[in-house]
Design brief:
This protein has 385 residues and is of the alpha/beta class. It has 17 helices and 13 strands. It is elongated, with a radius of gyration of 22 Å.
C-alpha cells in the first residue's frame, strides 16, 4: 500500500512524533510505501531525516503566534498538497488541526480515498478544565463537526477510557490500539548505578516521576505525600527525582521549600533520551499522580525497567498500569503516602508488582502495535476498494 501520514508537527523526542516514526518504519519493513506529510511549522528537520520519505507544506513560523492565521496561511499550499496526496491509497491523520481535516475532507471528496483518524488527544470533558473559552469552543467544534462531516473510515484511540469518552460525547465508535514501548531500550537489565552516584543518592529508596511539569500532573500531591512520610517515618530514607520541564517548575520548587523537603527532592529537568532509561533503572517506585492521562507512556517505560507504578485512580492510568502497580485516590496525599509506604515495607507485595510489571509490558511491544495499525489501514483500504 501507498500510505500517507498527515501531521501538523513532527518532533523527536516527542510522544506523537516518536509514535509515528515507529509506526512508519515498521510499515516500511512490511513492504509498504509510506510518506509523512507535515503541514505546520513545528518540525525538527533532523528528526524528519530519519524517515525515508517526507514532505513539508509549511509557512513562516512567526505566523504561528497569531490565532487562526497559521491555519489560514496554509491555504496556498492546498492545491500542491492535494496533487501529491492524490496518489496514495490510504491516509492516517495524526493531528487535530483544522487544515489537516480540511485536506482529508477534500481528499475524500475528490479522490474517494479511505482515511483513518489516529486520535492522540484527550476528550472534551478533560479539556474543559484547562482551556480558555475560545479554545474550548474551537476544540469541541472540530470534533463535533469534522468527525461527523469528514466521515473517517476508521478511528483509532489509545485507551478504553478515551474510546468510551469519544463514544459518549460524539456518538462515534473507535478501535483501541495502545502506544508501544521499546523493550530493547527499556528493560530490567539496565543499570542505574551511575545516576545514583551522580545524584549522590546512596541506598535511599528512589521515587521517580517523568513527564511535563503542569498543574494537572498532580505533583503538588506527591510533594505533600513526601512531607507526610518525612514527618511520620524517620526510619524511611526516600529521594524523589522529578524528570521533566514545564510551566509549574518554579511553583513546585517553592512548594518544596515551603514544605521543608528540599533534602528529599531532586529536580533533574529534561534529561537526554540516552540517559532516560538509566533514570528509570535507578528508581525503586514510579509515581504518576496526574489528574488525567489519555494513556501514560512513562508508566510502561518504568514497568519495562522493573519498577512498580503507583498512579491516580482516574482516566486511563489504572488501565495502563494493569496488575503492575496500585492506584490511589486522586489528589489525596494521605492515600498516596500509604501506598508508597506499603511498597517500601512489604517486600513480597513489591516483588509481586515487579513481576506483574514485566508481564504487563509484553503486550505493548511495538511490533504488536504496528501489526494492528497495519491491519486497520488495510481493512480501511479494502473496504473502500
Amino acid at each position: 500500500m501507498k500510505i500517507a501520514f498527515l501531521m501538523h508537527y513532527f518532533k523527536s523526542p516527542d510522544s506523537r512524533g516518536d509514535y509515528v516514526r515507529k509506526i512508519v518504519l515498521g510499515l516500511e519493513k512490511m513492504g509498504h510505501n509510506v510518506t509523512v506529510f507535515v503541514t505546520g511549522p513545528w518540525y525538527d528537520s533532523q528528526a524528519l531525516r530519519t524517515l525515508s520519505d517526507y514532505k513539508v507544506f509549511s509557512f513562516p513560523r512567526i505566523l504561528s503566534k497569531v490565532p487562526l492565521l497559521h491555519e489560514i496561511s496554509l491555504t496556498p499550499y492546498l492545491k500542491k498538497a492535494l496533487r501529491f496526496l492524490g496518489q496514495y491509497d490510504v491516509f492516517c491523520v495524526e493531528t487535530h488541526s483544522f487544515i489537516d481535516f480540511l485536506l482529508v475532507f477534500l481528499i475524500k471528496r475528490l479522490y474517494n480515498k479511505p482515511c483513518v483518524f489516529d486520535h492522540h488527544g484527550l476528550t472534551f470533558s478533560v479539556y474543559k478544565r484547562g482551556l480558555d473559552k475560545l479554545s474550548l469552543i474551537k476544540y469541541d467544534a472540530i470534533f463535533k463537526f469534522w468527525l461527523s462531516f469528514v466521515q473517517f473510515n476508521r478511528i483509532v484511540t489509545h485507551s478504553s477510557y478515551i474510546r468510551d469518552e469519544v463514544k459518549q460525547r460524539y456518538r462515534i465508535n473507535s478501535e483501541v490500539v495502545p502506544h508501544g514501548v521499546d523493550l530493547n531500550r527499556f528493560n530490567p537489565n539496565i543499570s542505574g548505578k551511575h545516576i545514583r552516584d551522580l545524584l549522590n543518592i546512596g541506598d535511599a529508596t528512589v521515587i521517580l516521576y517523568v513527564g511535563r511539569l503542569e498543574a494537572h500532573k498532580g505533583l503538588h500531591c506527591l510533594l505533600k505525600a513526601v512531607k507526610l512520610i518525612k514527618n511520620d517515618r524517620k526510619d524511611v530514607r526516600i529521594k524523589i527525582i522529578i524528570v521533566g520541564s514545564g510551566r509549574e517548575r518554579k511553583s513546585l520548587v517553592k512548594i518544596t521549600k515551603r514544605l521543608n523537603i528540599t533534602d528529599r527532592v531532586i529536580f533533574s529537568g529534561r534529561v537526554s533520551e540516552e540517559e532516560l532509561p538509566s533514570y528509570y533503572a535507578a528508581s525503586d517506585i514510579f509515581v504518576i499522580p496526574s489528574l488525567y492521562e489519555g494513556f501514560g507512556l512513562p508508566i510502561l517505560e518504568a514497568q519495562a525497567c522493573g519498577s512498580p507504578v503507583i498512579g491516580s485512580d482516574c482516566t486511563a492510568i489504572a488501565e495502563t498500569i494493569g496488575l503492575g502497580g496500585v492506584v490511589f485516590e486522586p489528589n489525596n496525599e494521605v492515600s498516596l503516602k500509604n501506598e508508597i509506604l506499603r511498597l517500601i515495607d512489604d517486600k513480597q507485595t513489591y516483588n509481586k508488582f515487579v513481576e506483574k510489571s514485566l508481564e504487563n509490558v509484553e503486550k505493548y511491544r511495538w511490533q504488536n502495535v504496528i501489526d494492528r495499525i497495519e491491519k486497520i489501514l488495510r481493512n480501511a483500504s479494502n473496504k473502500d476498494s
